[in-house]
Design brief:
Blueprint lengths: L40 E5 L3 H12 L5 H14 L20 E6 L5 E7 L5 H11 L4 E3 H10 L10 H13 L8 H4 L9 E6 L5 E7 L20 E4 L3 E7 L1 H6 L2 H10 L4 H15 L1 H6 L2 E7 L4 E5 L5 E6 L3 E5 L5
Parallel strand pairs: 3-4
Antiparallel strand pairs: 1-5, 1-11, 2-3, 2-6, 5-6, 7-8, 8-9, 9-10, 11-12
Helix pairs in contact: 1-2, 2-3, 8-9
The structure holds aspartic acid.
The site of aspartic acid (ASP) has 13 residues, from strand 8.
């Protein structure tokens, strides 16, 4: 992950996204070309989104469901021990526990999430089971773990030697302060970043997934925005989908992802909707906003995508038949 912030953007593979289909096309101000029904696309947060998108694309290119695509996609960073902000290898809380948050949402407002779950490498798949096999939406902590084990998930130690070492180093000062893009300054060490993934499938249906180990060295029991439906993730198949990364407390306050979907419903482009959500965080406390990172990513029903973040340093990955991009998010600061 040493080159996490070395942005690059491959040129669109094969030129402008003009595809066959039934709907008339047009270009909306501030956004990329509108897609036709039948042209899948997946977008996800940060540079680890590139590998995750490849996993999702395997599902989408065969005509699979967006729901399956986002689950398969985010399982890739969940299983990667080198990514210290998601799943296996995630940095622990201040008591040394690796606690994970994840949420998933489909095209019918079905959703599931797990909060503060331990010992399970793929919380996103547990969240999906909560959605599909229980009458509930959220399971937390020990109850989520018991549910996972009862459904065949294996209990695993998620604290890798590297994360254990970093935690022990942190314990020497035990100073907790979510910092902006800390990874830039510490050569590959970073204290937060979530994968949020949004996909549009060949049927024109949307789904999303979001999974994280949350803020490193957080208080035990702390839950961020990622598993909170409407904050870290929201999908309305009539309109679009949105996801978030960054300091979750600020995202929860404004119901960030739901806000963005509602703004898109009123006609905002994905980028404009994400920008307005960031502006709300700034308006509440400009001083606080200047010191933290929050990034939003959105995809609408037409396949237009856009993002906005507080600070430079946020990136998002895009994959479709014609595009494979890593894009630097536009920012306020
Ligand atoms: N949003 C995550 C949380 O607050 C962390 C991150 O994305 O950086 O738990």
């Amino acid at each position: 992950m040493g080159n996490r912030r070395k942005f690059f953007a491959k040129a669109m593979l094969g030129g402008a996204a003009v595809m066959s289909g039934r709907l008339p096309l047009g270009r909306r101000a501030g956004g990329p070309m509108v897609r036709r029904v039948g042209e899948p696309i997946v977008v996800s947060t940060w540079d680890f989104g590139r590998a995750a998108n490849v996993g999702a694309w395997e599902v989408l290119r065969k005509g699979g469901r967006a729901l399956d695509a986002v689950e398969q996609g985010v399982r890739i960073p969940e299983a990667d021990p080198d990514i210290q902000t998601i799943g296996y290898g995630g940095l622990p809380d201040r008591d040394g526990h690796v606690t994970l948050d994840a949420a998933i949402m489909d095209d019918k407002l079905n959703c599931g999430s797990v909060m503060c779950i331990e010992y399970i490498m793929h919380p996103i798949s547990v969240a999906r089971l909560v959605m599909e096999k229980t009458p509930h939406i959220i399971l937390v902590g020990e109850g989520a773990l018991q549910f996972a084990l009862a459904n065949g998930f294996k209990k695993q130690d998620l604290l890798t030697p590297k994360s254990k070492h970093d935690y022990e180093e942190w314990l020497k000062s035990a100073h907790y302060q979510p910092e902006v893009n800390i990874e830039n300054r510490l050569g590959g060490k970073y204290n937060h970043d979530t994968i949020g993934m949004l996909a549009l499938d060949a049927r024109g249906d949307l789904s999303g997934a979001c999974t994280t180990s949350g803020l490193a060295y957080k208080m035990h029991g702390r839950v961020g925005d990622s598993p909170v439906i409407g904050a870290g993730l929201y999908v309305d198949n009539a309109v679009g989908a949105a996801t978030a990364t960054g300091v979750g407390e600020e995202v929860i306050r404004i119901c960030g992802s739901h806000l963005i979907v509602e703004l898109m419903r009123q006609g905002a482009s994905p980028e404009a909707a994400c920008k307005e959500a960031v502006e709300r965080i700034v308006r509440r406390s400009p001083a606080k906003a200047a010191a933290i990172q929050v990034g939003f990513l959105a995809l609408n029903k037409q396949g237009e995508y856009g993002a906005w973040c507080l600070q430079k340093g946020f990136s998002f990955a895009v994959k479709s038949e014609k595009e494979e991009l890593l894009i630097a998010g536009k920012s306020n600061y």
